[in-house]
Amino acid sequence: MFGRKPLEERIADRRAHLPPLKEGQHFEHGPAKFVFIFLIVFVVVSHLIGLVVLMALDMH
In sequence order, which residues have a C-beta less than 8 Å from that of residue 22 and are 6 or more positions away? Predict the structure, then answer.
């Protein structure tokens, strides 16, 4: 459309110019990494808060 390559070809060209990925040192999607780490931290912190609340109420 309007003299541009199709989207698939533009993506393939962009991927071809990237360096090869290093094993174990790459999380492909930055926002997904942020969400993943946030959820892990949220679960741990909420469990710790719940433990403190239960200990304060002597309901353990």
Answer: none
Alpha helices in 1-60 (DSSP H): 7-16, 30-56
In the prediction, which pLDDT does 21 show? Answer: 74
The region of weakest confidence among 20-24, 31-35, 46-50 is: 20-24
**pTM attached to this predicted model:** 0.51
Tokens standing for residue 1: 């459309």
Amino acid at 19: P
Q: Which residues contact 33 (CB under 8 A, 6 or more apart)?
A: 27
CA terminus-to-terminus distance, the chain:
66
